Amino acid sequence: MTTDEIRINVEKALDEIRPFLESDGGNISLVSIDDDKLVKVRLEGACVGCSVNQMTLKSGVEMTIKKYVPQIEEVINIA
Q: Which domains does the chain have, with CATH numbers?
């Protein structure tokens, strides 16, 4: 998978999870993809101060991204 394909598929994954975040007043944006393995995202809106945002990030966002791009090793939130 090329870097461009990885970016496209990560965006598809974010598009899949975005409606759930928006329903709670939040959002997410892609910051960067490092070495085609590490995805950096920024949680926005209500997600910023949410007490379960780490759980959302790991079990929701990371799992969805890995479904689209299995080679991704980790997803982290950049505040």
A: 3-77 (3.30.300.130)
